[in-house]
């Protein structure tokens, strides 16, 4: 990338960021692009509306679920070192791993944990534990509180639980607490100098906090909870760092496991395995899954991506191997995900010249809706689907297991866990779009808003998939 091209990218990102933040009440945003040996970082606005601290190019932020790619990299490092085998049952290494369905955990392989094909029904399971035994506490709690959504390898459902079990597995096979392992084996060799694993460390430097829109004024108000509990570390609850640090991590995966510092972090073979398709639901709303990476297809170009929600914030990391490009960003309200999608699509279409095909081209009329109506459940969540005026109407109800779970999830969600009923219109049998959206809205990251139904038996769908997460017919 020439200096002129770099200047164009920087100017365009700045223009889009300023316009979006002002129109959509996003206090602060920071984004970075590394392309063909050149790099730029753009920061705008405020990191914390309580203090007025500015968002700087080196302001830290919660990685959220971007951490899942770091956790997966740690797992593959242990495969490289001969301490783990992807096709061995997890209980071989972690005998205490169990679910509340007898024998269910025994079938889960190490591979299933990091490919989101494990079926662990724990998406909203938030044990509130701190310190060195947090992950042990999480795994202990699974045995009494959480079951299975599907047989391992049978389906794909985005799995926080799988990544947290992988984090505990890493602690057992390496003898090192997960935060220390992350710092020693990822941060240090990659050159992530400004990254940490705790709020206590992050407070020593410039760090952004999340915000939620005030229901009355829509102005951004600060989150009341900075991080999720320590039990969620490997899934993205606690790691914090900068755009430059995530660009360095992305470049390590661009370079087949060789970091910008010249240190080999992962063998080329393991870096390649992470990028290959491990499971494909064959539906437009759920991109094919690698190990750690989600593989977003834009025509013939694959974007390896992971986004991460934190309390009142959202991050993203994208690696485009065919074009030697890494893009990462963080915005400190949930609405910033739309801006991240816009920037990614601009980089693809305008900067790289990648045509973005239309994902949904037409809507089918006269789709039989009866197979999809009914009640679907997953951990502490109920979705009631009914047929209203030729559309599907979904009512989602959060059913907390106890007061602690309710407190944590309510704070994570910004104070409200209830949503108004949502109508969906059929695209074709088994695939639905939220009513009122233009079809081109789903060409990018927002394809996750589409809802699909799977495994129709005896005239009834067994599973509903929204946002990559399955719920099972009750």
Please characterize this protein's 3D structure:
It is a single chain. By secondary structure, the protein is of the alpha+beta class. Helix content is 28%, strand content 24%. Helix 2 crosses helix 7 and helix 5 crosses helix 6 (160-174). The N and C termini lie far apart (53 Å). The mean pLDDT is 96.
List the helices and strands and how they pair.
Elements: H1 3-23, E1 28-35, E2 38-48, E3 53-54, E4 61-62, H2 67-80, H3 90-93, H4 110-114, E5 120-121, H5 134-145, E6 147-148, H6 160-174, H7 178-190, H8 199-202, E7 211-213, E8 220-222, E9 240-241, H9 243-254, H10 268-275, E10 294-298, E11 301-310, E12 313-320, E13 325-331, H11 336-351, E14 374-378, E15 381-388, E16 391-398, H12 403-412, E17 422-428, E18 431-434, E19 451-457, E20 460-466, E21 469-473
Antiparallel strand pairs: 1-2, 1-13, 2-3, 4-9, 5-6, 7-8, 10-11, 11-12, 12-13, 14-15, 14-21, 15-16, 16-17, 17-18, 18-19, 19-20, 20-21
Helix pairs in contact: 1-11, 2-6, 2-7, 5-6
């Amino acid at each position: 990338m020439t200096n002129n091209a770099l200047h164009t990218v920087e100017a365009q990102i700045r223009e889009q960021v300023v316009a979006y933040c002002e129109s959509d009440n996003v206090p602060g945003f920071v984004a970075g692009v590394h392309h063909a040996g050149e790099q730029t970082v753009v920061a705008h606005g405020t990191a914390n509306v309580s203090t007025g601290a500015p968002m700087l190019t080196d302001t830290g932020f919660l990685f959220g679920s971007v951490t899942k790619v770091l956790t997966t990299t740690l797992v593959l490092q242990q495969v490289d070192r001969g301490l783990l085998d992807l096709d061995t049952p997890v209980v071989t290494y972690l005998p205490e791993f169990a679910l509340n369905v007898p024998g269910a955990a025994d079938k889960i392989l190490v591979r299933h944990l990091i490919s989101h094909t494990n079926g662990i029904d724990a998406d909203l399971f938030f044990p509130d534990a701190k310190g060195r035994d947090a992950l042990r506490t999480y795994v202990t709690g699974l045995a009494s509180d959480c079951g299975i959504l599907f047989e391992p390898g049978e389906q794909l459902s985005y799995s926080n639980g799988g990544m947290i079990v992988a984090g505990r597995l890493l602690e057992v096979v390496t003898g090192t607490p997960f935060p220390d392992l992350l710092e020693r084996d990822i941060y240090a060799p990659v050159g992530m100098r400004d990254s940490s694993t705790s709020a206590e460390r992050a407070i020593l430097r410039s760090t952004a906090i999340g915000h939620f829109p005030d229901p009355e004024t829509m102005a951004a108000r600060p989150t009341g909870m900075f991080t999720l509990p320590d039990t969620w570390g490997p899934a993205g609850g606690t790691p914090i760092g900068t755009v430059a640090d995530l660009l360095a991590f992305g470049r390590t995966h661009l370079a087949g496991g060789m970091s910008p510092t010249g240190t080999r972090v992962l063998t080329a073979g393991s870096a390649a395995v992470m990028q290959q398709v491990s499971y494909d639901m064959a539906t437009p709303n759920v991109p094919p899954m690698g190990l750690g990476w989600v593989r977003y297809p834009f025509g013939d170009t694959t974007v390896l991506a992971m986004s991460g929600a934190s309390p009142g914030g959202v991050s993203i990391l994208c690696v485009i191997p065919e074009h030697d490009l890494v893009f990462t960003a963080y915005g400190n309200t949930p609405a910033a995900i739309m801006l991240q999608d816009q920037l990614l699509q601009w980089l693809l279409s305008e900067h790289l010249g990648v045509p973005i095909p239309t994902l949904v081209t037409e809507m089918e009329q006269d789709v039989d809706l009866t197979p999809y109506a009914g009640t679907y459940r997953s951990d502490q969540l109920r979705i009631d689907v009914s047929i209203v005026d030729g559309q599907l109407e979904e009512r989602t109800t959060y059913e907390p297991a106890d007061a602690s779970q309710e407190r944590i999830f309510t704070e994570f969600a910004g104070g409200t866990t209830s949503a108004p009923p949502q109508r969906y219109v059929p695209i074709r049998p088994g695939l639905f779009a939220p009513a009122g959206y233009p079809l081109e809205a789903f060409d990018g990251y927002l394809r996750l808003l589409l809802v699909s139904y799977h495994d129709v038996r005896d005239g009834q769908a067994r599973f509903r998939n929204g946002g990559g997460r399955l719920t099972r017919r009750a």
